[in-house]
Amino acid sequence: MKRKKLSVLPQYLVPQHALSKLAGLLSECRWKWFKNWQINHLIKRYHVDLEAALFTDLNDYPTFNSFFTRLLKPERRPIAHKIDALVSPVDGVISQIGKINNDQLFQAKGFYFTLQELLGNSGSASAFEHGEYATIYLSPKDYHRVHMPYTGTLRETIFIPGKLFSVNQKTVHNVPRLFARNERLICIFDTAFGPMAVILVGAMLVGSINTVWKDKPFVSRTVINQSYPPDGKGAITLSAGAELGHFKMGSTVITLFPKGKITWAPSLQEKSILHMGEFFGKIFLS
């Protein structure tokens, strides 16, 4: 156990934000030979399914980041369109899934974090006590766009600056309160069954967290809390399966749902593989 903890020690010591900024700059390099080398290295090392991409010619991608956030052929990710269906917001692997005990979320053996910590002590935490959550890890090979689990109207976003620990399995099992310490963007939506939270968690070498309603990525040294009008010209409503945002490099998405409003698909458990748009859970609308 001590050896495992020592293996993540360098992450505490390195300049996480500086390294991530450098990685972001390299990922935006437009030198054709360099960006193609980066892309080919990613494809070979992580066995990326290039045939699933909307564009399969590397010359269609001006930078490594443009490939990393590549679109997929729509037929490869059909959306489970049913009135009572939750859909998977991402491609990834379930790290944890289940009930929120009071305000405690399970991270890994011996590690928990609270709703208040995760949501930055916002007033939204009480809405999810005793509810349901899923933590999904996006590896470097995965499709990196985040989509809506269910149709909702954006109520609030909270950007919380923080650490940029890696979110791979080794780090999750050895860094306490990891997801409540890392930089993250919390998106709270109002839906037909109540509030829903989709949380994009930053990580080591993640260039930025982007959303479809904002031109620039979220960057700040202080907490940014923004409310959105529920109706009228400024309302932002996204349908189930619609794109919400994307990561530049791999990370984690956490979804939160209120008590008694959803039940997970029976096949889902820790380490289950997900594809965006597939049936994720059933919603109780009445």
Outline the fold blueprint.
Elements: H1 2-7, H2 9-13, H3 16-27, H4 32-46, H5 64-68, E1 85-87, E2 92-99, E3 104-108, E4 111-114, H6 115-118, E5 132-138, E6 145-147, E7 152-160, H7 169-172, H8 178-181, E8 184-191, E9 194-201, E10 209-211, E11 224-227, E12 237-238, E13 243-247, E14 251-257, E15 262-264, E16 273-274, E17 279-283
Antiparallel strand pairs: 1-17, 2-5, 2-16, 3-4, 5-14, 6-13, 7-8, 7-11, 7-12, 8-9, 9-14, 10-13, 15-17
Write a structural description:
- The chain has eight helices and 17 strands.
- The chain is an alpha+beta fold and 286 residues long.
- Strands 2, 5, 7, 8, 9, 11, 12, 14 and 16 form a nine-stranded antiparallel beta sheet that branches.
- The longest helix is centred in the first third of the chain and has 15 residues.
- The radius of gyration is 18 Å and the shape is globular.
- 40% of the residues are buried.
- The model has no long low-confidence stretch (mean pLDDT 89).
Order of helices and strands: HHHHHEEEEHEEEHHEEEEEEEEEE
Biggest sheet character: 9 strands, antiparallel
Query: How large is the share of residues in beta strands?
Result: 25-35%
Radius of gyration from the alpha-carbon trace, in angstroms: 18 Å
**Low-confidence parts, pLDDT < 50 over ≥5 residues?**
none
Principal-axes geometry comes out as globular
Number of helices: 8
